[in-house]
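Checked the freezer inventory, then went back to the computational side. Two predictions to log before the end of the day. The first one is the construct we discussed on Monday; recording sequence and tokens without edits.
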Amino acid sequence: MKWLLIASIPVYLFGAFRRPIFAVALVLQLAYLAGRGITLGRLPLIGPGDTLAFFSCSIGLMALPFLYARELDQERDLYWGLGAIAALFAGLALPFPTLNMPLPPVLDTYWFELHVALAFFAYALFGVGALLGGAFLLKGRRSLLDLQYRAALTGYSFFSLSMVSGGIWGYYAWGTYWLWTPKELWTSILWLFYSLFLHLRAKGTSWDKRFAWLGIVGFLVALFTYLGVSIFMRSSHSF
């Protein structure tokens, strides 16, 4: 099944300039994840290989509505950026072995799967927003900034729901809604960052460039929350 994930990488890069081909790459990844899910009897959300593949697919899935937005009809280079990011994380997933074990009892709940899936959808939307912010800085089209705000707001909504479902999962798993782990602390930092970021939109056009830059910084914070904490810190959330 891994050939589906491998095949999606060049298709994403080639499909960067053709929306239907971009969609084909996404279908390849969805087929890969569906095959993994059927084999495992659960969502493939354990281990770096599966989570990176899921993240890549989330980027493609969350980017697709924006690629069909009227404001991006002339922004073919932005298609390439979205395809390149999705291809990058798919490529990073390839060296890691897939974990085919059943879920440990502490993770064997729909609340865990909902929590993780929503978090990845949010990370993906923050990434889409960062690219839109970068495009605004290069081209100065305010419609790109409006799309960045839309992506960040939708991602923030997903992330808020992820935190709620994560708290419920934590209660069933450990008897408490909150543990003072590095992952939870960085999750809170990310949520507070985007809470402030979205409010800055009310500052008016004088803050446009700073808003775009902060959207890029926000995605870096999201990447550290996802990857950095697992790599550099010990946490119950580490993959």
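The second is the one RB wanted added to the comparison set:
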Amino acid sequence: MLGEKYYSVRMRASQHGSHEKGGKHISGGERLITFSGLNQAVNDLLHKGLSHSRGTPDFMQIQFEGINEPIRSIHPLPVETNEVDTAEKGQALARELLKKADIPENMIDKAFLDIAAYSEVRGAVLFDIRSGKRIDDRNEKGVRVSRIDWPEPDFHQWASEHGMAANSRIKEALAIAAKVCEHPNIMAELCWSDDPDYITGYVAGKKMGYQRITKMKDAGDESGCRIFFVDGFIDTDSCINFLEKQPVLIQREEKR
């Protein structure tokens, strides 16, 4: 399968004009697909952009390009679900999980203080655990984890084996987290959606895997969060290039 020609398909949608003209971000999506799947991938992303709970877009861009670089295959992270009944408990648990990922407590406090300032960033921010500063220099655009996918048959088989709902939201989140944690200098990821109807978030790391937290914000809240906690000695340009340009497909580990 990896010998076939692949294409990166990307969608972004906004309201009141494009993102560059100050439009409100509505939705984004990403697929890595062979030529035979392009039509379905474009239709799926079109539907996603037009049916998002953040609103109806008046600007949408869907583009695809051929992949010429070698595609890396990686395994999904182990998944654990943590049930909480309030956003406060969810965020408190996220702090504890970040400590287990060896993020200093004072840096966790600083990151949480800055979350409101990061809420309008369309992608992720790179947060330096040594200086307590954002180091990606991408402003509102942030870092977009791209050229990533999990082929449907393999994902559905994984979901069946793990008793997980086989929906596109979970697939996308797990794929992104796996690629992020593959980078040697990213210690952990903290994420929850800007979708007002989706309150589940997660903390992910190499040691702990993918830790789902069932409530990270209150329903109706359109603010999201995606922070990558990185070592201060990181080569920032190389890290961003990996996250945005390295083609990666997720493949479950075969049971023996």
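For RB: The chain has a mean pLDDT of 93. Helices lie at 38-50, 87-100, 105-118, 152-162, 168-182, 236-245. Let me know if you want it refolded.
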